[in-house]
Amino acid sequence: MASQVVRLYLRVRHTKDPGVYSINHKNFSYRNENYVFRSIFSKESSQQEIYEEIGKPLVDNIMQGINGILLAYGSSGAGKTYSLLGDQGQDGLLQRVLEDVFQRARILKPKKAINIVLSSFEIDKERIKDLAKLLPNNKNRFNEETLEIREHLGNAYIDNLTVTQIDSLKDALHIIQEGRRLRKIPDPNFESLSLVHTVFKITVSQKEMNVSKAGTLTIVDLADSESNQSSILKTLDSLRNLIIDLQQGHHASSDESILTKILANNIKHNCLTSVLFHVNTSNDQTCHNTLMFSNNCYSHENDSGTESLVFKSQQQMVRVRKLQDEIKDLKHQIDKTQEIHEGKLRGFGEIIGFNVDIEAVFGNNPGKEKKSIENHVNSVEILDEVQTRNKRLELKLNKNSIIFEELQKFELKNKERNASQIKALEDQIKTVKLEIIELNEKIQENVRKKLNHRTEELHQILISNHLLLEEKAAIIQNLPLTLQSIASDMRAVIDYKELGKSELENELSKKYKQNEENHSKNIKKIKQDIDQALKTLDNKMRVFDTECSIYIREKYERIKRIEKEIIKLYNLYLDQDRLIKNIECGLFNNGIKPIYITIHDIPKPPQREKYPYLFKSLMTNGVLTSSKDNNFIKISNSLFTKKYSRTTKNSFYAVRSSFRITFPPPEKVVEIKPDEGDDEEDEEGKDDIKLEEEEEEEEEKEEISEKSIILREEAEKIQKRTVEIAKKAKEMKYETNSLEVKVRDKEVEIRKMTGERDKHRELYCNIVKSKVENRVVIESQKRLLDKFII
Asked: At 75, which helix (H) or strand (E)?
């Protein structure tokens, strides 16, 4: 937080004993103590002088959008209220501030929008009471209404406080007078009026174009400083801490009292704070307390460098000099006492600590010696006290010297910083001067060019005006002839207009009819186009439906054929399997020599995992049946004999294995003899046929799987095509909707055309009326000319 300006002022009330104090420019000495202020106002100072010194800078700031605070501090009877509110003969600072604000607002009102707001309240025992709310029953108002402080976005405000917009100085003075009247309510305890803080807030807001700014001046008439009320003492202490924190750039603690909370909104930004202290030198205690309170508040140097005085450093210098003088006086007294008592202390150095032997040592003059010894003892005690005091003063002096050195360093830094700022400002001024010179030259050149251009334009205008005057003079001379020709022309025009009126009406009616016919034709065409588009879409959809149904029917028939072929192949496989088993059992050779066929030579039955579509088609056609739990397959009795029908678990190989159990193993198979060669050759031929049939079956199965894959792809294509057709149908619906919108737009255009037709009719009527009026004017001018000619 940047340090802010705090200015301290003093006003002294007239007393009977003027020798108690003295004023030397900015120094005020009271009872041999010096105090430094920015300005000191004596009994000869007028209210206007005080306003020029204190009030005018505050008004300048609030008109620039900078907040300000004015605090009046002092004891009862010191003149606080007189300085702020004045009396019947003299206006106070508040009235003069308002007068100055309204004068400046009156000047700025043509350029800016200015709004002035006033509010007043008082704080009594940390309770807020409104002074600007005018109620019919003012006696019991304070007992009925107490306002509260609330916070919004870190800013404190008083809830339900009356904020009055004032448009004139008279209204503002009336509100202040009513507030003073409310403060002067009769009360048996008169001192209760001095235990109240009275606050006046003036807010000036300005707006120019899109830029707005606002400044608030808070004027506070503090309670009497000599009161012992805890709330007032707390408020004054928190106010002192707030001022010190502001100047040192620390965070201002504003939560200690209601008054500091209210002032916190003003001091958050750059703010000028002025404190006017009032003293009445007739009362020693209150005057000293007021001056000591002011001693803790000092003005700090502002960031802009305008405030160059550091009042605390001056006060410290005065204190250091005073302490140095006191130390010198004390050293002189110590030297004197040491010279007087040095000889006696040497003789009685040992006796001083022993009270028993004092009378024996005194001799003939015991009283005088006793007194002298007592004096010596007292002097030694005084010496000890003086030495301790001297040490304390030396410590204070060392501290003050350190502070003084720090202040000197601070001043040197400020001087260096100011010097660098001054140099930078001088450089800026030089550059600005050069820019101003260049701008002046450019402005002069532009002015010359504009003057030359304007002179040429004026010369041309004069020439053109001269020619116009000559032309008008010639026209005036030829007026009677021209008027006669105009009259004849007007007659012809009137005749033409009478003829043209009917022609225009006919033309307009023809155009209107043509437009209506064109619009109706366009609407019919649009409807026909929409109907044709819909018909074509319907035809396309029907054709597509027929194509889809034909395609699906063909595919369905093809699938049925494939299923029939699969069943035939399966029956062939069963027949082959039956033949193999009959051969093994010796059915064809009367069971004399059964033949054993190895497992590798026997064709393997189809399995569900490899041929799922085969099993599915067999089950749908009733060739195979499956149980609910799908644990086994039962071969139908329609295709097998009762001798070979069995139940197995989901495969045909188990059936084969059940038959093979009754046959002998490979070791016991009888070898084929030479005379049985023919039978073996027949069997080998049959085996070759079976192998060929198995190969054909496998090829057919592969073809069936390929066909099923093709069918799947074609089914996917059909699905895609149906999706595309649905999209096309949606697009056609969207097109039909757009066509309907176009039809509506055309209807709107037709309505507009009818409106334009009505406008043209009105224009035609107006033209006819104006022509008639012109004819009347021309006839009147003709009459006047005839009179003039006569």
From this structure: none
> Quick one: DSSP state of residue 647?
E
Secondary structure of residue 216 in the 3-state scheme:
strand
Q: What is the DSSP letter of 611?
A: -
Q: How far is CA 255 from the centre of its chain?
A: 28
* 234 assigned to a ligand binding site: no
Q: pTM for the whole thing? A: 0.42
Q: What values do phi and psi take at 612, rounded to 5?
A: -70, -40
Residue 325 CA to residue 320 CA, distance in Å, equals: 9
Query: Which residue type occupies 10?
Result: L
Residue % of the chain over a pLDDT of 70: 67
Which one-letter DSSP state was computed for residue 637?
T
Q: Which range (257-271, 298-312, 472-486, 742-756) has the least confidence?
A: 298-312
Give the separation between CA 111 and CA 208, rounded to whole angstroms: 7
Angle CA(122)–CA(240)–CA(292) in degrees, nearest 5?
110
* DSSP characters over 474-516: HHHHTHHHHHHHHHHHHHHHHHHHHHHHHHHHHHHHHHHHHHH
User: What b/e sequence results for 235-268 when a residue is b if at least 16 CB atoms lie within 10 Å of its CB, and e otherwise?
Assistant: bbebbbbbbbbbbeeeebebeebbbbbbbbbbbe
Quote the Cα angle for 506-507-511, to 5°.
120
Q: What is the three-class DSSP state of 119?
A: strand
- Residue type at position 67: N
Cα–Cα distance between 408 and 405 in angstroms, integer? Answer: 5
337 labeled part of a ligand binding site: no
Q: How far apart are CA 112 and CA 75, in angstroms?
A: 43
- Name which of 577, 579, 756 is nearest 682 in CA terms: 579
Classify 15 as helix, strand or coil.
coil
Residues 285-300, mean pLDDT to the nearest whole number = 76
Tally DSSP H helices, then E strands, for the chain. 16, 17
As a three-state string, the secondary structure of 101-113 is HHHHHHHHCCCCE
Kind and range of the H or E run holding 67? strand 67-74
CA pair distance 590, 284, nearest whole angstrom: 159
Burial of residue 139, with CB atoms counted within 10 A of its CB: 0-12 exposed, 13-18 middle, 19 or more buried? exposed
Write out the two tokens for 562: 């494939």
Which pLDDT tens digit goes with each residue over 326-381?
676 777 777 776 666 555 555 555 554 444 444 444 444 555 555 666 666 666 66
Cα→Cα distances 193→71, 125, 188, 197, 504, Å: 18, 12, 11, 9, 93
Q: How many Å apart are CA 395 and CA 15, to the nearest integer? A: 39
**79 annotated as ligand-binding:** yes
Exposure b/e, 383-417, CB count within 10 A at least 16 = b: beebeeebeebeeebeebeebbeebeeeeeeeeee
The answer to whether 80 is annotated as binding is yes
- Say how far apart CA 8 and CA 73 lie, in whole Å: 11
Rounded to an integer, what distance in angstroms lies between the CA atom of residue 496 and that of residue 498?
5
User: Residue 497 annotated as binding?
Assistant: no
pLDDT at 94 over 90: yes
Tell me: is residue 349 an annotated ligand-binding position.
no
For residue 78, say whether it is annotated as part of any ligand binding site. yes
Q: Which residue has the tokens 């198995």?
A: 694
The residue ranges of DSSP E strands in 318-390, in sequence order, are: none
Position 191: which residue type?
E
Which of helix, strand or coil describes residue 309? coil
Phi/psi for 147 (5° steps) reads -85, 160
Rounded CA gap, 528 and 382, in Å?
A: 132
> Which helix H or strand E contains 70, and what residues bound it?
strand 67-74
> Does residue 689 have a pLDDT over 90?
no
